[in-house]
Design goal:
Blueprint (H helix, E strand, L loop, with lengths): L3 E10 L2 E11 L4 E5 L6 H9 L6 E6 L2 E2 L10 E4 L11 H11 L4 H14 L15 H13 L5 E5 L7 H18 L2 E6 L2 H7 L2 E6 L2 E6 L1 H6 L4 H6 L4 E3 L4 H8 L8 E4 L5 E3 L8 E13 L3 E8 L4 E7 L3 H4 L5 E7 L4 E3 L12
Parallel strand pairs: 3-8, 3-9, 6-7, 7-8
Antiparallel strand pairs: 1-2, 1-4, 4-5, 9-10, 11-12, 12-18, 13-17, 14-15, 14-17, 15-16
């Protein structure tokens, strides 16, 4: 385990700024995720930590020691790649033993550590198989075992699940999180998948255009998005201009400057079904345009009186609710869940719910 500190990391490719003064502190033993769309700089940052790229400015410290001038092969880092990167000419146990042999470990020690690593990733029965005899999920487990077996100071994972089908992604992400917790290895994980980041992470860093937009726990990132970008990228968010008198009056009572735009999550919007007015909420009239049923929940697309389409998430919808396409409805927007943002797209006040 090791504390990782990044101070003002900047990296450019010609006129393109890939990383713009990125500063992060990752606690020892933490599972820390870099989340963002393609091209946001997350993989560049990960590879800079690994030593595959050299930053133009800034410094990187691991365990309090600067590693800026340390070559990649001496940084004591384990790496799990998106494309598995297993050696096709080696058996499973040969792949896992590779890093230990490079470190000139003894034969007996290699055997014991490889056996333990394969046991952790549930591949003991496949030790003598070749990579082409394995599924994609099994090959990624080989990559994970190979990275862990050297007991690295930090473990880096670059979109390790992106080449797997949906069911395997869910299964393997749980395994990765369980393994990380049991080993306590400081881990930096890159993904563009919001749900994946929320499930596996201790903390998340949301990046966009080479900059850090927000760092926080999964709950903070989802429930208290610091910028409009975070609000829109992590989950769905309804956005409306705070022009209606009723809404403007409610927001005026809050501390801080008047907002430019207001957001609310679909699951925080209440679909009124009994005609009763709700307290401490802004009421909005609309018509159900479409209903998307997904078993445990349904997503309502509502055309509102403001001319703004709204999404409303309803848990355990009844048959009566599912038959309301084309019917008028009233939406209740609880004050506690309204998120106001300023002209620059930064949150003014946090929701308390």
């Amino acid at each position: 385990m090791a504390l990782v500190e990044l101070d003002g990391i900047t990296k450019s490719y010609g006129s393109v700024v890939a990383l713009d003064r990125v500063s992060l502190t990752i606690a020892s033993g933490e599972f820390f995720t870099l989340l963002g769309p393609s091209g946001c700089g997350k993989t560049t940052l990960l590879r800079t930590v690994a030593g595959f790229h050299r930053q133009d400015q800034g410094s990187i410290r691991v365990g309090g020691e600067a590693i800026d001038d340390v070559p990649a092969y001496r940084r004591d880092i384990g790496m799990v790649f998106q494309d598995y990167a297993v050696f096709p000419h080696m058996t499973v146990e040969g792949n896992v033993a590779f890093g230990l042999k490079n470190r000139r470990c003894g034969r007996s020690e290699i055997k014991q550590r490889v056996a333990r690593a394969l046991e952790l990733v549930r591949l003991s029965a496949h030790a003598t198989r070749m990579p082409h005899q394995l599924s994609g999920g099994q090959q990624q487990r080989v990559g994970l075992a190979r990275a862990m077996v050297i007991n690295p100071k930090i473990l880096l994972m670059d979109e390790p699940l992106s080449n797997l089908d949906a069911k395997l992604r869910i299964e393997l992400r749980e395994d990765i999180r369980d393994l990380q917790r049991s080993l306590g290895t400081t881990t930096i994980y890159v993904t563009h998948d919001q749900e994946e980041a929320l499930v596996v992470s201790d903390r998340i860093c949301v990046m966009h255009d080479g900059q850090v937009h927000q760092i926080g726990t999964p709950w903070e990132i989802y429930k208290r998005p610091a910028t409009l970008f975070v609000a829109g990228f992590v989950g769905a968010m309804n956005l409306l201009d705070p022009l209606p008198d009723g809404l403007a009056r409610r927001l005026a009572a809050r501390p801080g400057r008047p907002p430019r735009i207001v957001g609310i999550r679909p699951e925080d919007v209440v679909l009124e079904t009994d005609g009763a007015a709700g307290g401490d909420a802004y009421l909005l009239e609309g018509t159900v345009a479409k209903i998307s049923f997904a078993g445990r929940e349904a997503l309502y697309f509502v055309d509102t009186a403001l001319g703004i389409p709204f999404q409303v998430q309803v848990h355990r919808p009844t048959p009566a609710l599912l038959g309301r396409t084309g019917q008028p409805v009233r939406l209740r927007l609880p004050d506690a869940h309204l998120l106001p943002y300023d002209e620059a797209g930064h949150v003014i006040a946090e929701a308390v719910g």
